Amino acid sequence: MSDFYAQGQADAIANTLALPCTARRLVTVCGAQDVLAAIAWAKETGLPLMPLGQGSNVVLPPMLEAAVLKVSDATVSLLSDTQSAVTLRVGAGKGWHELVAETLDSGFYGLENLALIPGLVGAAPVQNIGAYGREFAEFVVAVHGFDLVTGAAQTLAAAECEFGYRDSVFKQGLQDRFLITAVDIKLSRTAVISIDYPVLKSRLSHRAVSAKAVFETVVALRRERLPDPWKNPNAGSFFKNPILSAQQLLDLQSVEPKVPVYPQADGQFKVSAAWLIERAGLRGCAKGAATISDQHALVLVTDGKAKQSDVLELARHVQDVVEDQFSVALEPEPRIYG
Ligand code: FAD
Ligand code: EPU
Questions:
Q1: CATH number given to 234-336
Q2: Which partner from 134, 180, 300, 334 sits 20 to 30 angstroms from 168, CA to CA?
Q3: Please, are residues 183 and 124 in contact by the beta-carbon 8 Å criterion?
Q4: pLDDT of 10 higher than 90
Q5: CATH code for the part of the protein at 2-71
Q6: Over the stretch 155-193, which tens digit does the pLDDT of each residue have?
């Protein structure tokens, strides 16, 4: 308990949108003792506990009336090793891209398409991070952590995590209830090449493809296509790509026949939110210090001095215009606090 109180008072919370935010406390969690101390503090103050990683998928308010919990464990250990696959346990504090690069160097394959996604491993299950045709759910075996009400250590098998497109139980019923401390992932010992994502295929299909080439091409594509959050603060895609029923898609195509469509396994259709935003003429649109990026229409960038209200006003405007023009609802991808 004394450690908890000794740690940061009213700390600034870093985030890639560069929004000013101060939390009542910022606490680094190393194990069960720290979790129990945090729970005791929450009971005493009546304030909530909020797990956070690197702040690359959050829209934070000026004041967060909570204790922000960050997991420090960044270890990687080998749980099992067969001729065909390895299972690794990775601490939630490990950098995601660092893990992708290190596993590839070790000859453990699978994560290449997920290179250069910002953030820490502990956040990967939360929205089931995905890119270039692969997603975290394909590799995870189990997620370990603590129940933030009882303090009990718990392990969820992958099937219990309710993974979906940019979704999981950690974003739903277990939001702020479960502190993820480690994940177990299973990777292949032979290269698994997945280049069905059109732009990846167009760059790579002309030659024999190695996992390293996929990694390097994904890194290059992301550097070309997405604004760098350290130069142009942003949270990646601000909206999810909407999922439409067959009838909703027909209605949209009757006015916009060229909208990019990605058929889903369940018979529904994902459409490109970036395309709709661009088509609505919103590229470059600004509210206060928040702007729709010139580089990618799905990304809201700030000038480093924006407030949460600038970002929310711009997001609301984009939602209203897209709803008016195309009758399509856009759902924010980052978590909006406050
Ligand atoms: P944070 O932003 O700090 O937290 C995100 C959420 O996870 C919060 O709700 C938080 O409560 C929860 N959380 C974090 N850590 C824990 C924990 N230990 N236990 C419980 N809950 C926790 N995402 C993609 O899926 N694909 C992409 O291609 C992609 N590209 C991006 C590109 C850019 C330039 C940026 C800025 C973001 C991008 N993102 C992408 C979004 C973001 O990188 C991911 O969502 C990432 O997993 C967030 O990690 P974080 O550590 O920053 O989490
Ligand atoms: N497009 C436009 N205008 C733009 C950008 C894109 O019209 O300014 C259209 C183009 O037709 C393009 C299509 O949108 O072909 C798709 O663009 P992109 O390949 O960049 O993918 P996205 O659908 O915009 C999704 C994820 C990204 C992920 C990429 C690559 C969501 C919400 N976003 O973006 O994830 O990196 O695919 O797989 O699913 C994130 O979640 O933060 C994120 C960046």
A1: 3.90.78.10
A2: 300
A3: yes
A4: no
A5: 3.30.43.10
A6: 999 999 999 999 999 999 999 999 999 999 999 999 989
Pocket perturbation via mutation, ligand 2, pick of 16, 138, 272 by most ligand atoms within 8 A of CB: 272
Which ligand is closest in space to the CA of residue 225? 2
Rounded to the nearest whole angstrom, what is the distance from the C-alpha of residue 127 to the centroid of ligand 2?
16
Kindly report the CATH class assigned to 76-198: alpha beta
Residue 3 has which token pair? 């450690």
Domain positions in the chain: 2-71, 76-198, 234-336
The full DSSP string for 26-79 is: EEEE-SHHHHHHHHHHHHHH---EEE-SSSSSEE--SEEEEEEEEE----EEEE
Tell whether the model's pLDDT for residue 57 goes beyond 90.
Answer: yes
Q: How far is the CA of 169 from the centre of ligand 1 (A)?
A: 15
What pLDDT is recorded for position 11? 84
> Residue 106 in 3-state DSSP?
coil
